[in-house]
């Protein structure tokens, strides 16, 4: 692939919207979009909201406009994971601040024991930093500086569309400046380094618990107490997942104690849906 001319390469422009900034701290993807092109023509388009299995903080919602109500009936990531992998297969991924988007994507895949596809990655942020002097290197600010429409900014497909237009401007402009962009290996060198990712350790949430998070339903769990090393049976209503660097916790209303409690995920021995 590295020897291919750019007209022969399939590019997959990718963007994710998330509940926060760090998948290690329990933040999840709540929207994803992919736009595939070849020789400047769109060959596929995909976008969907994703139920993150947790509440969306007001700070995140104020940026992307995505609310809990909007994702309540959306699929969980595990339900669309294979669609994502199929779309990215045999393509070069393009993203603005690729470390962020692919970091979250790899974390989600890791949480359901799937391996990401092996893609070459182009980061338009890295190219902007090396070859331009924009007042700001945020995607929206670059677009405004170049006269590119920012309609839909901070939503996944809007950012994908903007990333594509910025990328195509970079190709045209760099070529005019006498900088070789063909074949693909030359373009990859322009960002100065390979985009690398540390795949964080994640915790697999049982499907029964995920479904309860989605519909705000009740489940019955067998729980191993951390204090007495005994097993109790409880009815809970999960409403949030909290992940630290060491453990994952289900935050839920416990009908036994009649209060909000946290339950460590690896101590839930069994979970059953209550009709």
What can you see in these coordinates?
It is a single chain. This protein folds into two domains: about 5-190, Ribonuclease H-like superfamily/Ribonuclease H (Nucleotidyltransferase, domain 5, 2-Layer Sandwich), CATH 3.30.420.10; about 205-275, SH3 type barrels (Roll), CATH 2.30.30. The chain has helices spanning about 60-65, 70, 75-90, 100-110, 125-130, 140-145, 155-175, 185-190, 205-215, and strands at about 10-20, 30-40, 40-50, 90-95, 120-125, 220-225, 230-245, 250-255, 260-265, 270-275. The chain has a five-stranded mixed beta sheet with strand order 3-2-1-4-5, with helices on both faces. Strands 9-8-7-6-10 form a five-stranded antiparallel beta sheet. The model has no long low-confidence stretch (mean pLDDT about 90). Helix 5 (about 125-130) runs parallel beside helix 7 (about 155-175) and helix 6 crosses helix 7. Strand 7 and strand 8 form a beta hairpin. Helix content is about 30%, strand content about 25%. The relative contact order is 0.14. It is α+β, with helices and mostly antiparallel strands. The protein starts with 9 loop residues before the first strand and ends with a strand.
